[in-house]
């Protein structure tokens, strides 16, 4: 997934892939491969910045050295952890939705192995973030998480995804998102630790509430009744 399949693009080719991916993803938001291609072709400076931050963080540096992968063979033990732990919460999140950690698209358009790993890591920790912020995987939940991801990584693709997602909202969903989820997500993404510099797998055995406090994570609050009607 990190070696052998990557494609080198010149400037025009990169622009063409970015534009085609953006249009395709807007037409069909379920196309994870197009969203991934859009993120890679528009996000190189952002991923380079994330890489530098990881190099300057003790825990981030450990991630870069060990290059852990969030795949079934590596995280399957989370299903056997006590119910109160972060690992067990992640396992419940995945199991309740019949998700597999092995379903992430490969990295294709990054020039170096180091950057390719950072991109793959960002994809693979996405479900950890869903778990930690207690966000659903519906359109509103994914859009809120993209706001947090933008605050954390400054990826253009994240804001493009929010624009594309909110365009599909009903009037009720749009009101709920912009009055409740959006302001919370902006605050949550700004006040928590640098989430790309966390070695999540080493914290699976810790209490979920404890790791949230340690990383400054405030889960999404319940929707006010006035916005439920």
Distance between the termini: 45 Å
Quickly count the helices.
13
Record field, number of beta strands:
0
Order of helices and strands: HHHHHHHHHHHHH
**How would you sum up the global shape?**
globular
**Into how many domains do the coordinates divide?**
1
Gyration radius from CA atoms, angstroms: 17 Å
Family: Belongs to the COQ4 family.
Cofactor: Zn(2+)
InterPro entries: Coq4, Coq4_euk
Enzyme class: lyase
Please give a handful of descriptors for the protein shown.
229 residues, mainly alpha, 0% strand, globular, membrane, 4-hydroxy-3-methoxy-5-polyprenylbenzoate decarboxylase activity, ubiquinone, mitochondrion inner membrane
Structural features, described:
The chain is mainly α and 229 residues long. The chain has one domain (11-228). It is built from 13 helices and no strands. Helix 2 crosses helix 10, helix 3 crosses helix 7 and helix 9 packs parallel to helix 11 (171-191). The chain is globular and about 50 Å long. The protein starts with 10 loop residues before the first helix and ends with a helix.
SSE layout:
Elements: H1 11-27, H2 32-42, H3 44-55, H4 58-66, H5 72-75, H6 86-96, H7 113-124, H8 126-133, H9 139-153, H10 156-166, H11 171-191, H12 208-215, H13 225-228
Quick structural overview:
The chain has 229 residues and is mostly helical. The protein has 13 helices and no strands. The protein has one domain.
